[in-house]
Amino acid sequence: MITIAAWIAAGIALWLTRSVLDMFGDAGHSTRVAMLPSAPELAGLVMIALLAAGAAAAIVNGWTRDRSERSDARLQIALPLFALGVIAIPYMPVLPDLIPALRMFAGPVVWTVWISVAGLVLMSGLAVRASMQHRHRSKGGTRLVGTVAIFAGTLAIAGTTAIQLRDTLTYPSGEEPHYMIMMQSFWRDHDLKIQNNYDRKDYEEYFAPSLTPDQPSLGADGQIYSTRGIGLAVLGAPIFAWRGYHGLVWMFVVLAALAATVMWRWSFAHTGSGEAATLAWLAVFIAPPVLFTTIAVYPDIPAAFCVMVALAWRSNPQGSKDTVQEYLIRAAAVGLLPWLSMTYAPMAAAIVAVLALRAGANRKAVATVLAIATFSMVSWLAFFHHIWGRWSPMAPYGTEPILGNAIAGMLGLLFDQEFGVLAYAPALMIGLAGLWKMASAHDQLTRTRGRELAAVFAVLLISVGALGMWWGGAAPPGRPLVPALPLLGLPIAWAYQRASEFPVRRGVYQLLIFIGVSLSLTMLFDQDGGLLVQDGDGSSRLLQWLTSLWPAWEAAPSVAAFGLRHSAPLIGLWLLATAAVSWVSGRGRVRSAGLGALSASVLVTLAAILIAIVGPIVARPASAWVLQPESRSRLPMLDSFDAAARPHAIIYDPLTFTHAANIPPLMTLAASPGERPGAQPVPVLLNARYALAAGQYDVEIGGIPGSEAARGTVALQVGRMGSPMLEWDADIPSGGSWRQRFSLPVDAEFVGFIATPPIASATSLRIRPVSIVDRSRREATVHGAAVNVLSAVAFPTASLFFHDEDVYAERTGVWVHGESTTTMTVAPQRPETGVTLRVHSGAAPNTAAFSTSTWGQRVALAPGTPIEVHIPPPAKAGPFLLRVTTERGFVPAEVIPGNADRRILGIWIEIQQ
């Protein structure tokens, strides 16, 4: 019965995952509101869960014939499913209102819960199967299979990440284009003088925005050089010359796969456990810090590969003497590190010392290591003397201070919620604790390895933490520590293997590892990598997105934004909670894998709730953003509103059951002066921008100072570019307000209002939804997922919403850029009749193609001869996507006397009345 109950709980959790919870009201009084799927859907999801239980039982039946063993196996596999009960906590009456921190389990964080629990179920099943079969593969066979699997798995996962995120706003960005400029200078000009490469805009091959040298340094010859290490430019130049930016990314993916394979084999050799080594691989290489650095054009992944070759390649636990040739390869890898980045030089020195001590009495090996290291160091310093005239790696910076508070930087790299590694890969804490325990272990080899790794890791942590800009700028979180993070693979595997007699502790380790994996999946597939980019404002974008109904960032350290003094109490609280979980997990009497996984989930959940409650009290929140439901720029329930899919609703204060159609008027949004300090791409009233779903809205503007009536115009801005979509005359009596109803046929990420004086001085803005189009209908009407709207324009018979920058909208029509393909959403006033376009090609002949999902037409256009193109209505009435392609273009300034317009124009489009 317990087994069945666990699977039923999973079905209910899946039903609640399909639900939506939100907060509505003002700062004085707000209430939770839930929208729930239908009862038949609940029954169907429970049935699906029971079918999954049957499939699990069928698999277990193949493991043993003993009935009692089968029953116990099914129970152990199902027990972790009870941890999904955390999804139900925010939907409970009263309790989440008394303890607001419990609302952190609502929202996208449920997917982290699901992935983590699924991982625990899988690991429980594997543990039960291993205990039943009592069979083990040969070590050699496991090593071979694991080597191939880890290399292929890393290649596949990192490659998928590259395909998903490259050529987005996130990749390339930050310092990546500047590194590629150095590569272009090296292979095209055969020098490192970069100014001419910026002047001729070599970067336009892979980076659209305008670029100037961000870290220029004047060399001894008066030429401009980059302060960045030249190692990456030399290493990447051949690949970049051969296959461009994409080829360069794949080079990094391959290097990461090789480094991951070396780490896995190293961990397996020392623990004898493929499971421990594989979980260490997940904890290090599939968690966000390393995974998202893998596809970034930075020196960190090549450095991580060099570190792995130097310390882990062919390093075995038997302590046998290695050959001089092997030390030659290791020393060569170490010698590359200073050339990749100045911050790696101290770590390289530490690795040289470790290798020399390992070589021991092998004088030839010691001499080889020292000779190569000395040659590399002298050559490296000679490079600075040649370019800048000084034998110092600080020469490129001149008198510019680059150092900061080392202690703050070290703790920030570990604990900061925006830029630290532990916030995104909590399992790395296992590695740090494992280093400490390995360094004091009774076994001499383990103790030696622990001290070696601790020394190298600490040296890099100190050297990058001492930098004033320790977080690494616009880059994946924890990037400066990535070269040393694979070193934590061995202590993670070692600690996991030692916990074999403590199922609860093993469950905690597994849970932390799967949390990191789930965060990688979240950041990979949501917002095109937008969750990777941080603002340095003390509130992690990831935490904002995961826990939209409770400010989780107030309970997490933020060293970069608020300093060490503010963050120290929070760091202490997190360390105290970690120590408590570790102590309790090693003291229980639980001996079964499933119960251990469930107990681990309860422990970690209780610790998270305790931190969430105590953290804001300890830290005295310094973040400027305060959770006030009306003040948000977007509402989760508005985004996903669907009265057909979620017909039932609950209002919790007072407890009321109602229909979903009654919920939109509750979703009021408001703005007042000073609430939104961040700059907007288009100046809007009260600096307030909103993400609104397709539907009808009422807007109210008031609070205008003075005792006289205010007259002016109010315009609706849809999209971050272009002119307003609609404009109204507004006449506001003294002390009164102006109201207007408007419609949005499609979802829009940027909606705001532009007002002329004196209305622009208004102190109150309120938007109230009247009716919202169901999400399923919104996506169906445009024949695919919603596309971000960059600009919009309304005509008497239709509105156009543009999804790229290849259009120039005017009051009477639209110019489409020449030699381009643009995508727009057409929203006709009378969808059943379709739309007729009047098209001409301006001053030059052109050929244009028009297409929707069900129709297409190609037309030849002659100068001065407009034609009509009728677009039939789609199969389902409503807005639809239209693609327009122009083969040629003309520049008005070149063909029309006296015209100064230098735009490349293709065709002109008007909507026929």
Describe this structure in words.
The chain is α+β, with helices and mostly antiparallel strands. It is 45% helix and 16% strand. The strands form six sheets. Strands 15-16-19-24-21-22 form a six-stranded antiparallel sheet, with no helix packed on it. The radius of gyration is 31 Å and the shape is globular. The termini are far apart. The model is unreliable at 135-140 and 622-626 (pLDDT under 50).
Question: Secondary-structure blueprint of this entry?
Answer:
Layout (H helix, E strand, L loop, with lengths): L1 H16 L2 E6 L4 E7 L2 H23 L5 H12 L16 H4 L10 H25 L5 H27 L10 H14 L5 H5 L16 E3 L5 E3 L4 H41 L2 H12 L2 H7 L5 H12 L12 H17 L4 H15 L3 H26 L17 H10 L12 H12 L4 H22 L23 H10 L4 H23 L15 H6 L12 H27 L7 H27 L16 H4 L8 E5 L2 E5 L9 E3 L18 E3 L2 E8 L7 E9 L7 E7 L4 E8 L3 E8 L8 E9 L2 H7 L9 E4 L3 E5 L4 E3 L4 E4 L2 E9 L6 E6 L5 E6 L4 E6 L5 E5 L8 E7 L5 H4 L9 E7 L2
Antiparallel strand pairs: 1-2, 2-5, 3-4, 5-6, 7-14, 8-13, 9-12, 9-14, 10-11, 10-13, 15-16, 16-19, 17-18, 18-25, 19-24, 20-23, 20-25, 21-22, 21-24
